[in-house]
Amino acid sequence: MTNTREIESSVHTDLRDTMTYGSYLDLDTLLSAQHPVSDPVHHDELLFIIQHQTSELWLKLMLHELRSAASLLAEDEMRMSLKRIARVKHIQRSMVEQWSVLATLTPTEYAQFRGFLGKASGFQSWQYRAVEFALGNKHAGMLKVHEQDPRAHALLTELLETPSVYDEFLRCLARRGYPIPEDVITRDVTKAHVSHPGLVQVFVEIYAHAEEHWDVYEACEELVDLEDNFQLWRFRHLKTVQRTIGMKTGTGGSSGVGFLQKALELTFFPELFAVRTEIGAVEVAGPGQTR
Q1: pLDDT at residue 288 above 60?
Q2: Percentages helix, strand, coil for the chain, rounded to the nearest 5?
Q3: For 32, which DSSP code?
Q4: How far is Cα 213 from Cα 77, in angstroms, rounded to an integer?
Q5: Which long-range contacts (CB under 8 A, 24 or more apart) does 218-224 make?
């Protein structure tokens, strides 16, 4: 018995003058993009860098999928759009799990190189901001953080002025005959969406008769999954930061944990959560009567 696997004769071993795995993925560039700044270089800084670089790669793919999902909804291709959203949900799960790796960085270890980071902070991630904009959490004031980066500033400006995934979903429903309030359709898309009572009633009808609106009902639940995953990522971020630096201020100048806590109050699709309060609720109209 041998513990060696033979190389099959059909395997290509002469890779001169041909595209390889490494050249296709540009691994020379990717694997040489980690530049610790601590002096002397701290062992755990590589973990910190790779954690954030990996997150940025996932964010790039998330943005790619979300922009496609919004475009497909604008073309009334809801089923294909949901395929994109389903992929985003899997990306989110990977990103949530990544926090467990960074959580192995103890407060003492991080403190030994944190001071070398200067003002650098995840708050400055333009791709994260772009994903939030694509989902509808618009905030024009955030553009100021990216003025020094023309490319990032231009993309964020474009996304600020472009209907979000939720905007396109609601417009798609309106074109299909659902009674979406006109002021929702014509709203200023550079602002964050605010819960609309009239829209809640549209979803009450959809959820009450799900079998008659199955594809839309399914789309609603996919969006709820998307927000749930995003909130879970925010929560794991908060807890990892709290575990690592406690209640210190962030390197970017924020209040740290307190600032991240406020993000948990933000919602992309408020009516899809408000409808849950309405489903099955019985309103008492008077003695002996219910409505």
Answers
A1: no
A2: 65, 0, 35
A3: T
A4: 16
A5: 218/82, 219/78, 219/81, 219/82, 219/169, 220/272, 222/82, 222/85, 222/86, 222/89, 223/85, 223/165, 223/166, 223/169, 223/268, 223/269, 223/272, 224/269, 224/272, 224/273
Residue 193, judged by CB atoms within 10 A of its CB (0-12, 13-18, 19+), counts as buried
For the segment 80-129, what is each residue's pLDDT rounded down to a tens digit?
999 999 999 999 999 999 999 999 999 999 999 999 999 999 889 999 99
Reported as a single tens digit per residue, the pLDDT across 21-65 is 999 999 999 999 999 999 999 999 999 999 999 999 999 999 999
- Alpha-carbon distances, residue 63 vs 56, 89, 93, 127, 187 (angstroms): 10, 12, 15, 8, 23
Quote the distance between the C-alpha of residue 196 and its chain's center: 23
Yes or no: say if 19 and 69 are a contact pair by the CB < 8 Å rule.
no
Q: Do 54 and 98 contact (CB within 8 A), yes or no?
A: yes
- Between the CA of residue 93 and those of 148, 216, 253, what are the distances in Å? 32, 24, 29
Interatomic CA distance for residues 96 and 90, integer angstroms: 10
The 3-state DSSP class for residue 118 equals coil
| Tens-digit pLDDT profile for residues 162-178 | 999 999 999 999 999 99
Structure tokens at 256: 């740290």
Cα dist from 82 to 6, 86, 225, 229, 275, whole Å: 44, 6, 12, 15, 21
- Mean pLDDT estimate for the chain: 93
Q: Check: CB of residue 85 under 8 Å from CB of residue 226.
A: yes
Buried b (16+ CB within 10 A) or exposed e, 82-116: bebbebbeebbeebbebbeebeebeeebbebbbee
Can you tell me the distance from the alpha carbon of 258 to that of 237, in angstroms, rounded to the nearest whole number?
Answer: 12
Cα–Cα distance measured from residue 163 to residue 165, given in angstroms and rounded to the nearest whole number: 7
